[in-house]
Every structure is written in structure tokens, then in C-alpha cells.
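Quick one before lunch.
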Amino acid sequence: MASIDLQARIPNNVDLANNRRLQRALEKWQPAYLDWWNQMGPEGFQASDVYLRTAISTERGGWANFDYVKMPDYRWGIFLADAEEDRVIPAGDHAGTPVWHEVPGEHRNALRRIIVTQADTEPASVEQQRYLGATCPSLYDMRNLFQVNVEEGRHLWAMVYLLHAYFGRDGRDEAEDLLARRAGDADKPRILDAFNQPCTDWLTFFCFTMFTDRDGKYQLGALAESAFDPLSRTCRFMLTEEAHHLFVGETSLERVMRRGAQLMKQDPNGDARAQGGIDLPTIQKWLNYWFSYSIDLFGSEISSNAANYFASGLKGRWHEAKDYKEHKALDQVYNLDVIEDGQLKTQEVPLRNAMNEVLRQDYIKDAHRVLERWNKALEEEDVPYRLSLPDSRFFRRQGVYAPYFFDPEGNLISEETYNAKIGDWLPTDADREYVASLMQPVNEPGKMANWICPPKRGINRQPVEFEYVRAD
Ligand code: BYC
Ligand code: FE
Ligand code: FE
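Model of the fe (iii) ion complex:
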């Protein structure tokens, strides 16, 4: 099962050759996908040779193959992780009973909605990032951008396979719509907020891969615990690809921070901007913005949708099968701070209704683990400045805190105070202009833009000076 048929028009390990109807439907969608890629994928560089990794197996460790590929020739395909023998439903009312290999009628709409929402984010991110190639800080970074882009394209394939294979006519319609919505478009926007935000500078790209792709990690983790086994297996393989996206975010931000610290020390007035770098307070504003936008993606703290998904086994908690002993989450409560009579008060919420918040808290813990590494790097660079992540109530547009105003420490404040301080907390137009002014392409192998440190090592044991992208 693990071997992938790479010769097929659509590489796959789902035995597509023996399901002619499905194969024909997907082969009809394929040219529409390529049209979308050519229209909305990376601007320029489509004829360049890019040193990319392609999935050639789903075996742990040995699944990736590195070679020069022109992006439109990337082998986008359908790869499921191996089936777990005798797998049982991890979460909810039916925990412990056999998983589903087909979609039960009563869960069809909910499951379709979840899969479409997941699917929609993948092409959205490619659209958001499409102009970045022209301003890359190095060829190493450009290659990482394109690697992320082709794999988000593959993640769309992963979800479209499920729509075509299990949701009939409705699924095929949804697959078409996925190529019709556009990130940031006023008339046909992408579904979730963060995927309509502009991503036109590389500091944003690094924040996006650090924080927004990390929502991907946690949502895919929750879906890997689904009762619907094909969804679980699809998500398990996507998670192996996702690790690189998170690596790009975490390590690239660290390189920008270290460089900011070094330039700050070099400058007689301690001003990294005067030396052409990105100063740490500016990086902090970008972190605040993208962390907050990304935690919005978990949905409301109190959600009947989340309760229903959990009850029916469509989604589980992070590592539900492995880390939890009790899988029904009935007659338990979650203590949540909410606003009552203009004050923060703790409220008991039935645990199932708080499942979005449970997942969000796991995410926040993970993000803080990275923050500690960054602050260690700043300590190594011998500067006193430390970075932080805002409280989860700050700058929210979804959920129970969205109607109120909080400072980054999570204190309830007045709208006036908020408006007076917001320029200290979030990027201002002037900050964006400054960062944009630094976005000048560096296309010589091994060279880096002044505002970022070189990476510790190259990709796939190649040197940093390797020609990761060869111009057409
Ligand atoms: N923006 O009960 P609620 C990734 C809507 S990222 C706009 O709070 P629920 C990737 C919600 O849809 C992972 N709308 O939410 C990363 C609902 O609308 P309706 C993506 C939002 O349903 C980088 C209403 O508010 N995967 O893979 O419990 C690059 C109230 O609903 C937002 C998934 O999201 C928002 N932020 O949970 C590439 C997994 N938040 O029904 C890729 C699938 C909420 O009233 N999705 N709303 O019209 C889900 O499981 C759920 O849809 C959510 C929302 C967790 C997102
Ligand atoms: Fe993805
Ligand atoms: Fe990703």
C-alpha cells in the first residue's frame, strides 16, 4: 500500500487505476487545477529549476526525494498514510467502536463542511504568497517558499480526493468552487479570515508559516483523530509535510531576530533600522498580529459546532488516542474567563463545547516553546530585549473576546486606551512601509539580504551556497 504509482497521470497510493470513475473525475479536475496554479501560483519563476522535495513513498523517513523540478511539473498526487489495523474511533459518543470507511449519512454535511474549510486554506495560502518570489532575501529562502507553495497545492489535492471519492456530485461542485474563491477578494473571498490577509513581505511570510501553518498542524492533528478513516490517513501524511513549513517559520524568524540584534549592537544609538535591519520592537508587532489572527482560526471558545464534531467523532483532541484515557468528555467542565457585567469572570463551560479552546491552548503552548528558543537566541546575541506572545484575548475578531478591548497582557481596557496604544502593539502604516522598503531581491547563491542571518545549514545536506533556484 505504501508504494506510490509515480507513472500515473495522478501519482497516488489509493489504487486509482482500479476506480475508473473516480480517476476520470480527478483527471478532469487536474487541468483546472493547473490553470489555477498558472494563474494564481507563484508569479514568475514557473520556468525556473527549483530544488524541491517530492513525495515518493509514505514510509516513515524515506518518503522524500530531492531534485530540480520546474514548479508546474511538480508531481501533485494523492498520498494516504498506511491504514492502522483495527483502528477504533478515538473520540466522542462512539469512541472504541470501529472507524468508518464510508461517510455515514447523518454526518455527511458536517464532514463536507470541515473538509471544504480545511481545503480552502491550502490554495488561499498560495494566492497570498504569490508575489514573494520577486523579493526573496536569498535563493535558499526562495526555494523554501516554493517548497511550501507546491506542498500547499498538494494539500488541496489531498482534500479534493476526499470530496471526489466520498461526496459525489456535491463533492465535485465543492472541488470546483475551491479553484474559484480568491484570497482577499471582496466578492468571493476565502472562508477563514487569516487567509484573506495580505502577505506581501517576507517578515509576514515567516510569521504566517510560524503561526498560521501551525494552526494547520493542530487542525490536521484533530482531524487525524477522526472517525472517518480516509480523512485520518490523509491528514497523517499531510502532517509529515507540514513539519517543514513550521521549520521555515521558526528558523527564519530566528534569523531575522538575530540579525536585528546584531545590527542594534553595531549601531552607535542601538538603532537596527539605521543599519538597514528589522528592529526587535517591529518584529514584536508582526508576532502580535499573526499570532492573534492565527488563534482566531480555532473558532469560538464556546461552540456547539465543536461539541457536535467531538460527539460524533468527526474531530478529536490533539493526540486523543495516545494521550487521553477518557474519550467521551461528558459531564466535565472547562473553566473559561468570559466578560460578565463589564468584568472578567470565570465560567464553567461543558467540556465538549470548549473543544476549540482546548485545541487552541495546546497550540499556544507549542508557540511558547518556540518563543523560548527565540529568547535564548537573543540571550546568545547578548542583547537585553526579549520577545513575547500576546494574551489570547488581545486583538481577537472571533469568539467571546472579539467584542471587547484588551491589552497584550490580557487586561480589559477601554476603547479609547486601546486606540491610543494600538500603534505600539500592531504594525502601523509606517512600519509596513519600512519593512516593504527592505524587500529587495538577493539572487546570488549564498548571499543574504542585510536584514537576515544565513541559515545554520542548507537543505538536504547541500551547502548554504547551493544554487537552490536556477533562473530560466
Ligand atoms: N474566520 O463555532 P464557531 C491550514 C466561523 S490551517 C472566519 O466559532 P467552529 C493551513 C465558523 O466557520 C487549518 N470565520 O466555529 C495553514 C462559523 O461559521 P458559520 C485549517 C470563522 O465551526 C497555512 C462561525 O464562525 N483547517 O491548514 O467550531 C497554510 C461560528 O463558528 C473563523 C481547519 O480550519 C475565522 N477565523 O470552528 C495552508 C479545519 N472561525 O457556520 C493551510 C476545519 C470561525 O456560522 N475547520 N468562523 O457560517 C473547522 O474545524 C472549523 O470550521 C473551525 C471553526 C475550527 C475553523
Ligand atoms: Fe497545508
Ligand atoms: Fe503548511
